From TrEMBL:
Biological processes per GO annotation: C4-dicarboxylate transport; transmembrane transport
UniProt KW keywords: Signal, Transport
Stated name of the protein: C4-dicarboxylate ABC transporter
CC annotations in GO: outer membrane-bounded periplasmic space
Amino acid sequence: MSRAFRLLFACWLYAALSPLHAATAAPVVVRFSHVVANDTPKGRMVLQFQALVAARSQGRIQVNIYPDSRLYGDDDEMEALRLGAVEMLAPSLSKFGNVGLPEFEVFDLPFLFSDLAQVHRLTQGAVGQQLLAALGRQQLQGLGFMDNGFKQMSARKPLRTPADYQGLRLRVQASSVLLAQMQALGAQGVALPFGESRRALSSRVVDGTENPLSNFLTQGLADVQSDVTLTRHGYLGYVVLTNPRFWASLAAADRRLLQTALADALAFGNALSATLDQQALTQLRSMPGVRIHALSEAERERLRTAAQPAYTYFERSVDKAFWAQIRKDLAAN
């Protein structure tokens, strides 16, 4: 059965059963689709959310999880959410520029954040609330943010200097800022869905990619990439979404239950992501086919300088006041 047919059938079924659901007060079912493995920080967060909801609703609200793009992938998951084929997603922040929300691409800017505390000044402050509200422009309801940590570069050689990037084809998410970043470094960015990364690397359609170490490990990229350079150049995070019609259809008490369970699951996931990242580094260091390269401060600064054209691109696409607020928040102590 094709994905397009599955999507149309799911939408028909959703519409057909909605009146019956309302009339019989049937248990609430939440289909939560995502594109990564269950043993990643996001996957573990969703499992925690499932467990909390089941316990707190005494089984009346059921969260069904579809990981690893088994139901929908990068290319069609948001359309599936809009059409009611699923109730919840947790896409990466990089996906929203292409759906008319370029403000989200601030998180793609290379070397913008020095640590997660700076990231949280945005996601947990006024900027984060502004971004969640902006999702309504695209018929999406934002519920919260989650970290997956900082990205590192991988290829079949070390990527220490801009010269090392020349002529490479590097997989990125479908973000204009990430494409501009790779171009500035001298490489060609190739936007591919996450689920296709390993195959593209194995077949040499692309030469390398960028990922938090936990993603690198759980996707089996060590089998097709020999070198990981600890650039810590960019942040990868997620926003949890729901369908606004579904959210509005819930009883107020059920919305509160889901929201508080999600807040607790996100706190769990954020704490876990840092731990799993360190564990992944330790594991990768012990793998005989993988070489880990740490940058000097001077090497990192050269990469930072080379990547600056990505900022020019971003600044042209967003409101000046929004960008000024971000810089103010990041400069705060």
